[in-house]
Amino acid sequence: MSATSPRVAVVGGGVAGLATAALLADDGYTVDVYEQRADFGGRAGSWESEGFRFDTGPSWWLMPEVFDHFYELLGTSTAEQLHLLRLDPGYRVFFEGHADPVDVHSNERRSIELFENLEPGAGQQLSKYLSSARHAYDIAVRRFLYTNFDTPRAFVDPEVLRHAKTLVQLLGTNLDAFISARFGDRRLRQILGYPAVFLASSPERAPAMYHLMSWLDLDEGVRYPDGGFTRFVDSLCAVAEAKGARLHAGVTVTEILTRPTESDGGRGSRIRRRLSRRRAAVAGLRVADADGPDRIIDADIVIGAADLHHVETRLLPRPLQTFPQRWWDRHTSGPGAVLVFLGVRGELPQLEHHSLFFTEDWTSNFDDIFETPTAVPDPASLYVCRPSATDESVAPAGHENLFMLIPVPADPELGRGGVDGAGDPVIEQIADRAIDMVSSWAGIDDLAERVVVRRTTGPGDFVADLNSWSGGALGPAHTLWQSAFLRANNRSARVDGLYYAGGSTRPGIGLPMCLISAELIRKRLRGDHSPGPSQC
User: Fold this and answer.
1) Disulfide-capable partner of 240 in 46, 245, 250, 495 (CB 3.0 to 4.6 Å)?
2) Is 38 exposed, middle or buried (0-12, 13-18, 19+ CB in 10 A)?
């Protein structure tokens, strides 16, 4: 493109915003990214204290081919940007009522052996299950994840039609029922069902199509970027800037500016005039610097890569909102979370890099989170990350780095966290119970006494720091009615030139999905209606 290339303003410097900036800058657009916080990364943030460095968001590296494809589009590679370490075992699981934890290896053969040891006959069932999961994943990548669903081709593709019966069955059955029909041991059902949490959902609420996730962790493998996920964010920033994008931190977008559009007065002009009163075109942004007055940024295209609820309901006037508050009132948020960051003296060999703690009645846990009235689960299934098991740079010598995630209702009224126990009482109590539970189940009797650094985060922080809808930790839940083409569209129906990227929109939640959402924006602007990944 020439010196008069269209000007793109990206709202939000999280993973989706940075990825979109890199791809569009590579296509010749003039791109500026505006991030309200001091650092980029959004949910993929980091925090340092007394020699500890904590990732404050994503901690699982799955779907490596999505990252590989993204970097290849930009003329580089994952290997050039990052050093990935394959985890073995992929994770350890502690089950309520069972003294011994189970190590899950990212290898189909070993996974089959594990399942057979826990339930005779389950190994053969798992082989069939993983074959189905791999097939569903391949179809999803080729036909659904990388499409904007803006032409009928996505639905009448020969491959989709050929497998239509199976796809309908997978969409019409929930994941829990799909698993329970094949496996009897609770431990196996929980190992296969927990990936629903990655999707901000639960096994009872997510379609069985998402059993594809089990192929990712039981066979394809779990990886970790050496140095932490902040290295991935650093890489995105560097690649985007190398392509010409300009990144602005500490700048808050307060309004998306628009100009009216004119009715064409042609056929159906009465309807068009009526619609035109509710339409506009992007003109730019109003932004506020941390230490200065508001200023106007001119733009031809705006990418809303911040939380979609915030972009729609706070940055646009009501008549121009494609997704007004009443739309959100009919939809389901994913869970909130209490995050606990601990610097611990001494070693913790009882925990793997990833450890999962599952209560016996985790169905009640999910009901507490998703049903009305909501409640904080107690005891709560939870997740613990110990990156210092793999990466010595995240903790001082002789210490361990722990990150705990306790799913709770998406309710900012639960409060905010703090440093050294200074958070709101409910948040600190949830953290204390989680520490006690890990201590008891994993046999670390003195865990609480060995904590030298502590910080908590609650749903209120997700609202204050990330403008998160309802205090959710991840985004809208991946239920049947909030998946694939039923998820929020990535283009405004009211404002020409306004697009959306990130976990709130298509294709969904997670780092790989954020990268794909960036590519979907580029495909829209290119007029590319192909269903699969773009050609490099």
Assistant:
1) 245
2) exposed
